[in-house]
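Re: the 182-residue chain
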Amino acid sequence: MGAVCATAGLRISETLGLKWEDVDFRTGQANVLRSVVDGTVGRCKTEISQQPVPLNEVALAELQSRRESTMYDSDSDWIFASDRVFGAMPVWAGSSLQKVLQPAARRTGITKRIGWHTFRHPYSSLLSEFGSDVKVVQELMRHAKLSTTMEVYTHARMLKKREAQSKVVDALFSQKIAGAVA
């Protein structure tokens, strides 16, 4: 679940809503058709949320490995099927957070409290930092409004702020610039 959330920017409800039939391993994309919140299957948050998302090699490899290791591997099965209900529903986000994600974070030295939603902020920020067009970032995040993407999810890292600031300082004070005034 972490690999899908981190590399595709999906909400946990959308990740839990995936079935094997939604993933096209050949084209490397997933059709996001439903979400699961507190054991209830429903529609995605917005119409934009239902757009297909690309899956990279990391996510595809993790999904393929999961499919090979689960007894719930039929096309109509939930990808993250719950053993507790014999695959009839996906796992609960809260229990997988407490039993899987938070312990894994602690093992790697992360002491801050994290949740499934934690993956979405760095995903958006890194897309922006690496020069992705803002419309591409918005669509990958599947936000209806660009302002949500840019004002809530995209954060500049200190290193990038320093690099940008240095360019301004160099332009203002550098002797290398022709015609520069001291």
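The chain has eight helices and five strands.
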